[in-house]
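Course assignment 3, question 2. Fill in each field.
Student: A.L.
Task: Predict the tertiary structure for the chain below.
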Amino acid sequence: MSETISQAEERMKKSLASLKEGFASLRSGRASPALFDKIRVDAYGEKSPINQVANISVPEARLIVIQPWDKALIAEIEKAIRTSDLSLNPSNDGKVIRISIPPLTGDRRKELVKTAKNSAEQSRVAVRNIRRDGNEELKKLLKDSQISEDDESKSADELQKLTDSYIGKINQVLEEKEKEIMEV
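Answer field:
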């Protein structure tokens, strides 16, 4: 029975981590190396993440500098950024790529908040589904006489507290991302 709860918690942790990862690549008005986590570059006949072929730094709040370890990859990195869905315009001087992060418009901010809210809701639904799966497992154990009704009831309460805790964490992560997006 505690195994059921620990498995549920592990799945809830993964759901929360997935949400945070998704939020990291959601562009706010700030420069962040995480924006490029999902972008792959054709390097040496293979698709590689930018951070594996270059150093990404943020010298200013709205500027990102990408310094490829191999200067021959500058064109490929620039092409990968231009074709991504980030709507960024990189420029290079032959040694480094500079990307100025333009301030977001009010409409774009609202759009991003809406996207963030949708992602958070999907995570909340996933957490509730995990709770449901856990409760079904507990009922099955009760039916098979592997646990008592008291144990099933206590475990169901514990599972509900865990669910409430993770939904609270999801709401907190969403709130922080909303503040970041709406920051001017």
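Instructor remarks: The CA atoms of residues 29 and 104 lie 6 Å apart. The mean pLDDT is 87.
Grade: pending
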